[in-house]
Amino acid sequence: MPKPLSLPFDPIARADELWQHRWGEVPAMAAITSIMRAQQILLSQVDGVVKPYGLTFARYEALVLLTFSQKGELPLSKIGERLMVHPTSVTNTVDRLEKAGLVTRRPNPDDGRGVLAAITEEGRRVVESASRELMAMDFGLDGYGPDQCREIFDILRPLRIAAGDFADGEGAPAAPGRSE
């Protein structure tokens, strides 16, 4: 897909000016619009890296999650919980990964109705290669340094806590790249 021509002005800054003129200053409008546009840009860049592997970012995340598990397999319900997605999305993701030969399914011996998704050797190879490429392009955040990336994480963390992504309590892991 061709890259769109750059505008000669920042459309979000312009929208902020117009918003202020009509409704008054609302910094949250410019912030959310910037975040949403950043998400579009980053997803496009990351998907461009994982697409040649037959992946989307969601499928890549599922493979990474399986590589992080002790046995290389997890119940589908746990995948949905960890990736914070609906069970239907997990099923669709695992279906696609299974068709590509990157995961297999088997009954969960600990839950008669449950299913485990297990990463295959091909899945491990794909996730390693894709991860190397994503790290080489800093997941699209190459315009930021490590401290700025940690700052972005810190700025967005209260939003995630308020949304109920996780409980903010003792024993929670430190921000990425920090060992507190």
What can you tell me about this protein's structure?
The chain has 180 residues and is mainly alpha-helical. Helices cover 57% and strands 7% of the residues. It has a domain at 54-162: Orthogonal Bundle (Arc Repressor Mutant, subunit A). It has helices spanning 11-23, 27-50, 57-68, 76-83, 87-99, 121-136, 146-162; strands at 73-75, 103-107, 115-119. A three-stranded antiparallel beta sheet has the order 1-3-2. Strand 2 (103-107) and strand 3 (115-119) form a beta hairpin. The longest helix is centred in the first third of the chain and has 24 residues, at 27-50. The protein is globular and about 60 Å long.
Count of DSSP strands: 3
Helix/strand-derived category reads mainly alpha
Along the chain, the helix and strand elements come as HHHEHHEEHH
Largest sheet, strands/sense/barrel = 3 strands, antiparallel
Report the top-level CATH class of the domain at 54-162.
Answer: Mainly Alpha
The CATH topology name of the domain at 54-162 reads Arc Repressor Mutant, subunit A
Assembly type of the chains comes to: single chain
CATH level-four homologous superfamily name of the domain at 54-162: Winged helix-like DNA-binding domain superfamily/Winged helix DNA-binding domain
Distance between the termini: 43 Å
Low-confidence stretches: none
Summarize model confidence as the mean pLDDT: 92
At CATH's second level, what is the architecture of the domain at 54-162?
Orthogonal Bundle
Beta-strand level of the residues, as a percent range? 5-15%
- If strands are numbered along the chain, what order do they take across the biggest sheet? 1-3-2
**Percentage of residues in helical conformation:** 55-70%
Shape: globular
Number of helices: 7
Estimated radius of gyration: 20 Å
